Every structure is written in C-alpha cells, then in structure tokens.
Amino acid sequence: MTSPDPGTKWWGWGPAERQPELSTAQAELLEAELGATQATPPVELDQVTLDEPRSLPETVLGAVASDAVLTAKEDRVRHAAGQSYPDLIRLRSGELPDAPDAVLLPASAGEVAAVLTACAAERVAVVPFGGGTSVVGGIDPHRAGFERLICLDMSRMRDVEVDRRSLTARLGPGLTGPEAEAALARADVTLGHHPQSFEYATIGGFAATRSAGQASSGYGRFDALVVSARLTTPVGELATLETPHTAAGPALRELILGSEGVLGVITEVGVRVRPVPEARRHEAWMAADFESGLEIVRELAQLGVSPDVVRLSDRDETRLSLAMSASDGLARRAFDGYLRARRRSDGCILIFGWDGDRESVSRRRSLAARVIRHGDGAYLGQAPGRAWEHGRFAGPLLRETLLDHGIFVETLETSHTWSRLGELYAAVAAAIRSTLEAQGTPGLVLCHVSHLYPDGASLYFTFMARRRIGDELEQWRAVKTAACEAIVGAGGTITHHHAVGRDHAPYMAAEIGELGLEALRAVKQRLDPVGIMNPGKLIDPAKDGA
Amino acid sequence: MTSPDPGTKWWGWGPAERQPELSTAQAELLEAELGATQATPPVELDQVTLDEPRSLPETVLGAVASDAVLTAKEDRVRHAAGQSYPDLIRLRSGELPDAPDAVLLPASAGEVAAVLTACAAERVAVVPFGGGTSVVGGIDPHRAGFERLICLDMSRMRDVEVDRRSLTARLGPGLTGPEAEAALARADVTLGHHPQSFEYATIGGFAATRSAGQASSGYGRFDALVVSARLTTPVGELATLETPHTAAGPALRELILGSEGVLGVITEVGVRVRPVPEARRHEAWMAADFESGLEIVRELAQLGVSPDVVRLSDRDETRLSLAMSASDGLARRAFDGYLRARRRSDGCILIFGWDGDRESVSRRRSLAARVIRHGDGAYLGQAPGRAWEHGRFAGPLLRETLLDHGIFVETLETSHTWSRLGELYAAVAAAIRSTLEAQGTPGLVLCHVSHLYPDGASLYFTFMARRRIGDELEQWRAVKTAACEAIVGAGGTITHHHAVGRDHAPYMAAEIGELGLEALRAVKQRLDPVGIMNPGKLIDPAKDGA
What we know:
Chain A is an alpha+beta fold and 546 residues long. Chain A is built from 19 helices and 19 strands.
C-alpha cells in the first residue's frame, strides 16, 4: 500500500509551495552576518537509498487491516526521520541510515494492543509515530539490536468526544492540531494548544512529549491540559480515571505524559477545553533591554496578570527579526524614527496576546499594560502583534529555505527560576557562540522567553551559521554538546518542551539522577519486558554517538 | 529519651483544653437526630497495654543522635496511630494492636539515609511520620512480616530557605503548617495551604499525601504548589530539578508526591509561595438548593473567577451547621426571618473567601458576585463567612467531643467531573445512609463541595450515627466499604485529598488498574528492594482485613 499524497515534502516541513523565498535584502543581510554560503538543495527521492525491508511476521502484519500496512519507498522514507537538524540533513542528503521495515496504521486501541503483543512475541521493535515533527530524534528508527522495526503511524485514530458540561474532551492520538480544533469547534470549544508544530503534530505526540504551545502562559502547557490518558503497552493497558484530581498515590498520568513511546502507545487523551474565545488581541511593546524585559514578564507572571501569549526577544533576536521583516521602506523608516524618539532603537521586542470574551480581554489587557508601562515598555501597537500571529507557524518553513541556502539553523530550549535565568541565558549563549567561532563559522545567537511561570520561565535559543558542507553532523554535535553542557552546568532543564528523544538522552542522568533513570527503567521493564518500544530514546542513551 | 510535652492529647487531636463542650441545645439536637447515645470517654494512658519493644540493632539506633531515639511508653503510643476513626477507637479503648519499637528523630537527609540503609540491611520496617494526622491509616505501624519496626519522626528537619525573586522556598519535611507559615512570613510570603489539619500536619505529609487546603480552589492543591522534591530511599536519593517546568520525560516529582512513605522519606520540598495578602474577605451566600449551588460553583470555576475559598454545603449540612451554630435567640430569629423572606429557608449555604491586594480582592469578588447573583444566590453577609474562618480548624476537636458522647462520626471524600458529580453524590449518600440504617443506627449524612476545578469538583461527606459500643470497627467497616464501592461504581476517585494509606489500599486496583499497581510496585522494588518502607500502605492492600 501507498498512503494518499500527504501534500507535504518528504524531505522536510510542510508543502514545498509554502516555503518562503529570501528577498535580496534578506539574503544580503544574512551574508553580512554569516559570510557567503553555498546553495544546498535536497536530493531527489530516487537518489535516496534504503536497505531492503526485512520481512515481518504474519502475526504482526495481520494485527491491522490489510490496507493499513505501508511498505512503499516514500512511505518508509517519510517515517524514517523527524524534523531535527540531523534528521533534515540526513533526509536532504539521501543518507538515511535506516528506515522502518513497514509502517502500520492501527485503527483502534485493540489493534495497537494486538500489534504490540505480536511484536513482543517476535522481537520486532516499534516506533510510535504521530505527526513526525520531533526535533530531538524522538522517532528515529533506531534498532538497538532488534533485527526488525516497524513504525506505528497513529493517523487513523482520530475519535473526538466532547463533554460540554465538564469542559473536557477525549481525543484520539492521531488527530493533528487543526483536526482536533476543527472537531472541538463544532462543540464551540477549543483546546488552545498552538505550538509551532501545530499544523502537523498530533494529540498523542503532544502528550508523549509534554508539548508547550505559544499560548501556554495563559492556557497552560499541554501536560497541564491533560486530565486522563490511556497507554497501551505490550503487556496490557494503563488508564487513569477521568476525575478532576485525586490523592490516590503517585500520578500515573504523569508517568504516561512525557513517556515518548518507550513505555507504550498513547491511545486516548482526555483534555480540558474552553469555550471558543469571542475576542483575541495581539500587540507589541518594546522593552529598554533584555533585563528590563525580564522584569516586566516576571511581574506579569507573579502578579497573576500574564497575557495568554508572551514572547520577549533578546536584543539580537529583536534586531534580526525587525531586519528580516518585510515592511516597505517608508513604513520602516517611520517605525525606526518612532523607536529612536522613544529611545528604544536597541530595545527588546515583547509580543503579547489575549483570548477570551471581550470584557475579559479588555480587563486583563489593562491590568497587564499597567505593569508593562511601569517597567518602561514602549507600546508599538497591534500591527507587529498581528504580524507575529500571522507568521506564528512559519518558522519551520523558513528554516528549510535557510537550509537550501547552506545555512546551519537550529533551536534549543531550557528553563529556570527567575533567580537563575540570567545566568543560564549568559552561559548557553556564550557556549553556542564560542563553539561556532571555534568551528570557524561564527554565527548569530538569538533568544526569546516564551513561557512564563510564577517561579521562572523558558529560554528558546535560535542560532545560525554557515554550514560546514559534508561536515554538518559534526558541526551540529559540537554546538549541541556545548549548549547542553552549559545548561546542565547552570542547573537548567535539558528541555522545556522539545522533549528528550535521542538527542537529549545522554543528559537524563544529569536531569533526574541515576536513580531516577533506574526508576523509569524499572517501569519500562515491567510494561515492556522485551524492550521493543521506541528503543534508544529517553532513558536509553546512544552508546555509539549516532 | 522522652520527648518534651507536645501539648496535645495522646489519644486524639489537639490539646484537651481546646476541645469544645456541647451546649444543651446541641446535645438535644443530636439526640433528636441520632437517638440517645452513651458517654464513652477514653481510657487512661496506664490502661493502654503495649507489647514490649523489640531490641533494635546498634547500626539503626546509631544512625541518629543519642537524644533522637524515643522509647518511652507515651512516645510509642503517640506514634502508634493516626487520626482515622479506627485509629481513634483503638487509642481511646487502649487496644493498640502494636506500636513502634522506637521512634527515631533524624536531623538531616544524611541521617535519614543512614537509618534506611541500616534498616534495609537488618530488615527493620520504617514508618515515616510527619504530624501523625493521617485519617486513612497511613502511619499505622503495620509490620507485614517484619519483626522490628521503627517510626521515623521528621520533626527535627525544619529548614526554610526562601528565594524571594523566584517566589519559591525549600522547606524541611518536619515543619508543621504554622511553623512553615511563620518562617515564610519573615520573608513576607505565604504558602497559603490550609487544610483542616493545618495546625499539626507537616510539609512532608502534605507532599506524601497530595493534601488539599481550604483555599485550594484559589492557591491550588499542595501538589500543584510543589516545584521540586527530594526523596531519600533505602538505595539512594531521588531529586528533581528546581526549574519551573520540563519536558524531560515522565515527571518524577509526581512519583514522589503521593508516595505515602512506601518509596522512601521526603527530605525536602520546593514550593511556590506568594506575597502575604494584604486583604482577606470571607462571606456567605445561600443557594436555592444543591443543584443550583452546583451550577453557581461550576460557572465560577469554568469562567476562571473562582474565589480562593469555596464551600457549598448540601441541604442537610446547611441545616445542621445552622442548628449547631451558637448564635443567640434574637439574632437567630432575625436570620431565619431573612431566609424566609428570601425563600431560602431550606437552601444550601455557600462560603467564599478571597485573598490578595485590596484591589484584586474587590475586583475578583465583584466578578464572582455577578455569577452568584445570576445563579439566584442570596447574600448572607460577611458574618457567617468570618464564623466559618474562625472555626476552620475546629472540626477534629468537635469530632472528639462527639466521640466522647458515644457518636460515630467519620468523613470521606471523592471527586468527579461536573457531568457525573450529581450521580456520585446520590450514590455515595445513599450507600452511607442505607448501610447505617441496616446496622440499626440510622444517621445524618452531610456533604459539601470544597475544591473546584474547571472540569469538576470534590465531594466531602461527613456522617454521624450512634456508636455500636464494642462493635465500632465492624460498624465503621460496613459503612466505609459501602461508600467506597459506591464511589468506585460511579467512577469517582477513591480519595480526593485524604490519600490511600491502609483504608483505601484495597481500592487502588479499581483506581489505577492492576497494571498501574504493578508499575508502582516495580518502582518500589527498585527503590526499596527489601520492602521496609511503610509496609501495608498504598500499593499493598491488607490481606487480613485489619
């Protein structure tokens, strides 16, 4: 079987036709910042060489419908990598180390259970696959000693059941963000979870990775929206009650959340929903500098008046995003003049957004504005806020344009308490910058704060440099390692919302300790005694450096 | 060693001199409701017979300071039971099945580790002990096959370290509620966690049992206030990072929370704190009936305008609490007249409370009042609210007065989604009522809602009947079993905030499934391979019915 055309590129994010082109001004700006780069388009599909698929036992293949087994080359390629920088490099170069022997599409929790039982009996590794949007190697088909490996694509499990009175919904794991929202909208409710991966990522993936959305400062991270979960494991089902809270022991829901497919397959997620907001407002302000911007957002969070969307860019991210923005010469000169007049030419941009009924948006906005003004923020109006909203999912598309232009572009994220956020910011930025320089490819290091808590916030770094053609993975690994070590050294978390996958697994001992790892391994040993579930991820760091 | 006089009764809650007496009117009212009862005072301490303590290995005793080992009779009795109804009956009758062989008071996590290592090597069972306020048999010295058992009293571990900028604090597990608040107040912050057990329960106990406070609708349950935790186990320490959030796998913090001493001893809890509120307002309203009261509180929760304290009593609880209240004849007649005029004579009382700066209390109160009025609530003023606040910790004291009068009085709690809360309420109330009747002791069954969530709420039942003297535990078990089965049958949680202990352990399979239990047992096996930690609790249901 071949699946219907998904309309997206096999080698990366979204449809080719939505990928933006760089304007001459943008290309010149990047060359001025990074030096001259070399165009590096992806190879053609027929240039991708895959191993022949190993044949799979009938008990495995027969556990799903006959039209639910995909073995065509393109299907295997599409399930052979996520969207991490190493993944994209491997896809674009056609050098895929491996691909699943088949892709199975179960239609129910019962079919998932049948597949897992058969795979455990036959020692076939299983990689659960939602939208394929992992940026940390979370769905790489790593065999870890298993001869055969299948990918379990959850896209057929898309049930939706809304409890309007309790404002909850049971969602199938295979629903993408837009599919879930469309179904919820028919009951006049919304989940409000909008990560940058929203268009392609799935409910099961959000749960398995503890995703955070762009409005998480208001709506809460995905894990905070989950009220119950079902996990099908090779030895049976783990399910939590649909009650608003319980004191009945350790929270098993919190063991399922973040389990990244290594314990089993999430087959249903119960979530909190809200009425569809009648009003929405986005706007921008300019803080004098990053420090005063941090003070503003800390006050907002600690006073309980945080907007739903909050984003504070540091000076370099502010400078680059303004320079890359497409506004025409006249409007731009007026804007620059305004900033100069307000002495904010080298300030830090703040994007805020509010959702809700008109009265609540207006009330909350005015409470927040008081704090922002007190922190010396200068109002920039709604236009830049709307521009941000318009482009909120476009980052991954632009990233591939940059890849086409021979640019190394990567993101990583962490979080810390307000007391130690500045120290973490400085350490990570310095580590990335100096490692890029040491590689002979000095680059841009940009950062923003995008998720607030009363006790701290996240930091999201984007960095760019010239690609060392042919040497991309070494270049990436050097910077990634330096950044991760800086995070660990400053006591930050190794990941605020990208999850662990393969890339962060070596740092889990620093995150939760050896005994914490052992506790998780004990659970895995009980639920997945053969070890077939998503090998090499989360609690099983790569020994081979691959 | 004997500990200094703790100022509390050895056989129950708080100091004897704070225990209220029943007025003639109250006694008559209870007799009219329950029939004539018989005075049943507790025995004297010298009538309590304990087994001789088994001698303990020097490696265990030597792990703490020499003044940190208590073996006097009163110390052993004080650590032989919590405050559950069966515990109190056993204490008052002097029929303690067992008591710890010694009580050890470690002064640091290092001493805890040394004690646990020695106990594991010598097969000595360990019961961690905070304030001794468990109402579910959580600290009963159940030996489960271990010949020797010690109680680890955490009262010497009371460090406090405040991070004012991040609004967090590291708290020692042995701090009682008032001790923690007093220390935090010196940094002008508060935890805001005020369960009924506040005066005696400890930080470690709040964490180990997922406690909920009277203001949890606003401040959040204790587990939601915890940002990090340290657990000393017999094989090492489990500690989570002090970052505001992480996507690094399943949340180990949520494995430590609710672990009830069966995995190890909580030695530090990192919590969110808030500035001490400048204003506080409590007030009461009267809903037409329980259903319309539920609609009011659901609206408050789902619109995000819930007061910090919310309490909706059902008709019987409203009737009894008004009848038991001490207001004099004239004020009472005026109050009754007001209720009649508003057609609320058989309504359901609502208590609300707000904390914060004056402006926020006033703003939030006015948003809530709009909802309450729309739901047809009648305002009763601040006096009943203040009366509730004044008596908020007095319940356990009154309970013992009732026990002295030969009354069986017990509480239990659960939660469910708004859609199924009415069904759960009816099923549990009917189960308690009919079982009391079947026992020949028809009683009063009262209920209130006291913790709101957008998706549902808790139900807290109090029931009273004549004690079947000499047959108390059988009488209790019949009602408890019927209530628990009704909860499980309606899909509610077996406990919203009292935790599991011995009493709810048989229902854990219904709560989290056999596989869920197995997952927790796998963790216990890894962290406590000898099984010395708090045997018989949470995941180890009693086989003997004891």
